[in-house]
Amino acid sequence: MTLDVPFARLVEPARQEVRLVRRGEGPAIASDAAEYSATLLTSCPPNARRDVYLIAADPGSPRLSDPHMHGVVEHVVLGTGRARLGPVDDPVELLPGDYLSYPGDVPHVFEALEPGTTATMITEQY
After folding, report:
1. Burial class (CB in 10 A: 0-12, 13-18, 19+), 26
2. Which among 89, 92, 26, 31 is positioned nearest to 60, based on CA atoms?
3. How crowded is the C-beta side of 30, counted as CA atoms within 13 Å?
4. Percent of the chain with pLDDT over 90
5. All domains of the chain in start order, with CATH
6. Model pLDDT, residue 46
7. 72-101: per-residue pLDDT in tens?
8. Is residue 65 over pLDDT 80?
């Protein structure tokens, strides 16, 4: 031991704690331009580059997103409903259980095609 810190603590990764966020309990961000809200489930810790969101959307105006920083990739798993999403110039229709990843550093869209559409979205930066 040096400085009263066991060597193992210096070389082992930090132990993850269990964290539960029940539906409707996380901080939600609503869109002014679409029937769309994103709930932040976990934010990026200092040594990683990812955020996890729960998306809730209904048909209406699509959610258009400006490009994020260079190197951002979005990963989406559709939970319920049906949606068209991805790069604005080439969106893809997803059904429940479908997964799509696409560059988030280009204009992109999320359009719910059925009421009660939900998805999990993970943003990563490389």
Report:
1. middle
2. 31
3. 4
4. 51
5. 33-125 (2.60.120.10)
6. 74
7. 889 999 999 999 999 999 999 999 989 998
8. yes
Q: What is the residue type of 2?
A: T
Q: How far apart are CA 110 and CA 88, in angstroms?
A: 9
Helices (H), the chain: 7-11
- Rounded distance, CA 4 to CA 7, Å? 9
DSSP classification of residue 44: P
What is the spatial distance between Cα 52 and Cα 80, in angstroms, rounded to a whole number?
Answer: 17
Asked if residues 55 and 111 have their Cβ atoms less than 8 Å apart, the reply is: no
* pLDDT in the model for residue 81: 97
